[in-house]
Amino acid sequence: MIILTLPDIKYKNSFLNGYKEFSKEKTFIESDLNYIQENFEIFIEQLKDLSKKKLFNPFFIPETIYWLVDDATLEFIGRVSIRHRLNKNYSDFLGHIGYAIVPSFRSKGYGSLILKLALKKCKPLNLDKVLLTCNSFNSHSREIIKKNNGIYENFKVDNQGFVKLRYWINIKGEN
């Protein structure tokens, strides 16, 4: 059964395998792999703390991290970050939702599924619409966003010269 869940230690082995896949392509690097391996329980708590307002930093954006997993096999498939609000940087380049699918699970529909499930998690945050961004060259993300009713607004160029496409998804009134 494929579910979206908060990070949990029971997915440690498959998470580490997925993280190694991300590391090989230099994407989605949250922390040093050795640190995560040696401190997995602390790492899980750090991820959960991201949603709490107790982190005192004026630039901090509360976010909730969920993992897409096969709960029957304990397989980690991907992760999604839902930002509770936006600041200038998130509004211009990152959006409310960011997701990543483990490379060996791509092109199997999990990108669309993780976004669909994440949109449902946005409703309790009292968001009527959410912003998603993707690199202009990332045709897969663009299609996933469009499949989930993303409406193109515009693009912005980040400080590395990447063109970020900006889409809005209306979630007010959605089930």
Explain this structure to me?
This protein is of the alpha+beta class and 175 residues long. It has six helices and seven strands; from the N terminus they run βαααββαβαβαββ. A hairpin with a 4-residue loop joins strand 2 and strand 3. The longest helix has 13 residues. It starts with a strand and ends in a 5-residue tail after the last strand. The mean pLDDT is 89.
Tell me briefly what this model is.
This protein is 33% helix and 27% strand.
Output the keywords.
175 residues; three-stranded antiparallel β-sheet; 27% strand
Q: State the end-to-end distance.
A: 21 Å
* SSE succession: EHHHEEHEHEHEE
Strand order of the biggest β-sheet: 1-2-3-4
| Helical residues, percent | 25-40%
Sum up the overall morphology in one term. globular
The overall average pLDDT, rounded, is: 89
Number of strands: 7
- Report the sheet-strand fraction: 25-35%
Largest sheet: 4 strands, antiparallel
Count of helix runs: 6
SSE-based structural type:
alpha+beta
Would you identify the regions where 5 or more consecutive residues have pLDDT less than 50?
A: none
Q: From the alpha carbons, calculate the radius of gyration and give it in angstroms.
A: 16 Å
Layout of strands and helices, then pairs:
Blueprint: E1 2-5, H1 12-24, H2 33-38, H3 40-49, E2 63-70, E3 75-83, H4 88-94, E4 97-101, H5 110-122, E5 129-135, H6 139-147, E6 151-157, E7 163-170
